[in-house]
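Bit of a strange request maybe. I'm writing a small parser for structure token strings and I need a real example to test against, not something I typed by hand. Could someone generate the tokens for this chain?
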Amino acid sequence: MTGNHATLLDEARGLLDDTVALRRRIHRHPEIGLTLPRTQQTVLEALDGLGLKTRTGQKTTSVVATLEGGRPGPTMLLRADMDALPLQEDTGLPFASEVAGAMHACGHDTHVAMLVSAARMLVARRATLPGRVVFMFQPGEEGYHGARVMIEEGLLEGETKPDAAFGLHVGARHPAGVIATRGGAMLASGDTFQILVRGDGGHASAPHDCLDPIPIACEIVQAFQTLVTRRVNAFDPAVVTVAKIEAGTTRNIIPETASLLGTIRTVSEKTRNNVLEGVKRVAEGVAAAHGAKVEVNLIRGYPVTVNHDVFADRVVRVATELLGPQHVQTMATPIMGSEDFSYVLQRVTGAFAFLGTKPAEGPAPPNHSNRMIVNESALPHGVAMHVAVALDFLGDGGLRNGPPFPPGRS
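Reply from user aminoacidic:
Good idea to test on real output. This should exercise your parser:
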């Protein structure tokens, strides 16, 4: 790492107060989904005066800001998602959400704040920057496919088409300030199934006169577990979870229908397709065995997030040089959460990494908890990582030996 890189962490720490202030401002006013007008305006105000070329989305309240360097070179994309979750905050923080039923419980407020501070640091290096940096501020990560919408609006095309992409996500899974990543599958696909079992209702005292959909639905749930344990390779895993069962109105009525709602998680597209087909086959087969009808609706969510091996190695090297080996972990396995940065990594060489924000003491509620908190002392590590990865890639002339395709195998 160059001498300039060696000062990045100190410089990022010097911006901690500004980073935290922006994070807390966003945290107080969370917005959900693809339409985040207040958050978008906050981002635009924070970037004002930096001399970036900005554009906003038409289908969503995204912000794309481009920094043109002083010399020709490749293009690096850095990403932050901006949306919150439909959750009532219960942290007791002085800057807790002021919006009923909405909370930044997944750290996207920190992602925005870190990327803005990274933009300030990179702008200060504009004259010697060999290439350009595209800052992607994205709504709608929490199930709304915001990254896909931005791609449809031309994010990865034209003069600013990126040659590489990098994103960070905070969480209490790792100690504060630790960077964790891996080559290959990083996060799982996230698909949804909706199943409606249709029988014949009647009096609960005479089930022989009815076709009870409830035991059929229960049998389908059990059969899904057999599908996973007997039809899926243990070294290419899948999770099939039925998270909601709904049927009936009272104790003495057999209902006409029973519904199941759940999720499918896999870490390869091959297993993903096999399990999706298997869920449909099992549900239809069990229902048919009992003479019932069934409707199966499979909703494809985010694909597997696959880091490119060579770029993941770059991230590990940069993090080790910047933060020290004690702050770097190579993940042994993927995690089964899903991410729509996967859409970017399907099109652009790059990697995704986690930044540990575990509290120094006390409980560490996970992301998506109404009590989730962030150890803000870790934020300079995230800011410096954005800057260091961009400078390392651009200073290296981009992918000099060609892109490391195919992506890391899962």
